Amino acid sequence: MDTRTTYIDLLKELGKLNSAVALLTWDEETHMPKKGLDLRAETVGKLSRMAFELSISDELGRCIEDLEGRDDLTERESASLRVVGKEYRRSKAVPPALFEEFTIAQSKSQAAWGEAKRTSDFALFQPHLEKMVDYTRRFADLYGYDDSPYDALLGRYEPGMTTARLREIIRPLRERLVPFIDRLLGEKTPSDASVLDGRFPIDPQRTLARTVLEQIGYDFDAGALDDTMHPFTTQIAPGDVRVTNRYLESNPLSGLFGALHEGGHALYGQGADAELYTLGLSDGASYGFHESQSRLIENQVGRSRPFWTFFRPIFTDALPSLAGISVDDLYRAANRVSRSLIRVEADEVTYNLHIMLRFELETKLLDGSVRVADLPGLWNDAMDSYVGIRPTNDAEGVMQDVHWSTGLIGYFPSYMLGNLYAAQISCTLREAIPSLDEQIADGDFGPLLEWLRDKIHRFGAIYEPGELIVRITGKDLSSEPFLDYVTAKYSEIYRL
Ligand code: ZN
């Protein structure tokens, strides 16, 4: 058989296995009765192993090597080889015995983190985290890098990005954001969220989430919305991109913005065609780019005044206790800035500072200039100097996120890059559609989605993020558009 056909057939097989794993995992998080867990874990384990073995099979390796030398490939096929080949070589770089040892240590570490976080006792977690850092450093060496071991980890989530380049992008953020937050929160009374005090039943909130997803163009014939503990989006197959969400009785904005965020991810997934899926190109240009699509819908759209002009009547119809609330009240409540400890609850202005401190600590852990034992103190000092608040215990400090406990180092910058890409893309979008605000205020999201589809979604991972951002905006990624966006928006809200 022709190598190209074999390659595509192998990817199709891999796609089916991954699809089954995604569906079973989605079910586990949404509908599965808890007594089903044991067998489910075994089934997912079995299928994941089959997928992994196929993804590192010699047959696939031969196809990649063969095809890489050919000059008659389509643009999509070349991109597929770039993405699949990179992942293949990464997986092959780690000896199976080392990887197995790591996965065992990983589950112990995650369990220890859960217990240590519950009791706010870093000492319980420290030896496990030391092991995770050690494994990560060994993996980085096996993957290979030019400058810094962190590059080897970062590149997996953000192809083409380097530690040095990231430092350059970040510098102006720190220089401008820290004093800006001081000015915002200095003497001014923070904008008032008490207009949203109350208890709000979950059923209407769920309906609101569905409504807002329909409005932005999420296709329910190619997806579904279900409840979960931690919201996520999963691409099960072409034509099946599902969203999960969570609602709080005490805060109706939480579920709404959760739906908009996941909706942004889901639109990206629904914009990929079946061929991109088969070629392993349907997950988007990078984790950071995926995050840009969720942030753009959540923040640039959902946290804008035109959005609330349109959405206020729908919102208050569903939640009648808020009947008297004004567009301005809602807009301000949706855009409160505060010095807060927890990343996932942080506002648009402070969020990137939470990521910055993680990035700085991660790079130092990797190059050995910081010891795990010193992390809690360094974390608290950094929170103090960036965000202006000091954790009183390690559960709300260094142990708040699950990532490090599983050895996930190099991933955090994706969240920040998402915000930066979103702001830069948004500038170009507004030039392309000058009446965007009027359209949003009328509830017309069609032209917005069409533009995102045309400039971003339909390309999947064909281009690396560094190239894609230039194709969309004409410029390399920079933090300036984000800084201009938050400075203008929040100066107005806080009447600076
Ligand atoms: Zn996200």
Query: Terminal Cα separation, in Å?
Result: 69 Å
Enter the CATH topology name of the largest domain: Neurolysin, domain 3
Ligand set = zinc ion
Order of helices and strands: HHHHHHHHHEEEHHHHHHHHHHHH
Query: What best-fitting shape do the alpha-carbon axes yield?
Result: globular
The tally of domains stands at 2
The parts where pLDDT drops under 50 for at least 5 residues are none
Tell me the number of strands.
3
**Class computed from helices, strands and strand pairing:** mainly alpha
* Strands in their spatial order, largest beta sheet: 1-3-2
Task: Give me a quick take on this structure.
This protein has 2 domains: 1-93, no CATH class; 105-496, Orthogonal Bundle (Neurolysin, domain 3). The protein is built from 21 helices and 3 strands.
Report what the structure shows.
The chain has 496 residues and is mainly alpha-helical. 64% of the residues lie in helices and 3% in strands. It is built from 21 helices and three strands. The chain has helices at 3-30, 37-55, 58-68, 75-93, 96-119, 122-143, 149-157, 163-185, 202-216, 252-270, 274-278, 287-301, 305-318, 327-333, 351-367, 375-386, 413-432, 436-441, 446-455, 465-473, 480-493, and strands at 225-227, 233-237, 240-245. The chain has a three-stranded mixed beta sheet with strand order 1-3-2. Strand 2 and strand 3 form a beta hairpin. Helix 3 (58-68) crosses helix 4 (75-93) and helix 9 (202-216) packs parallel to helix 10 (252-270). 38% of the residues are buried. The structure holds zinc ion.
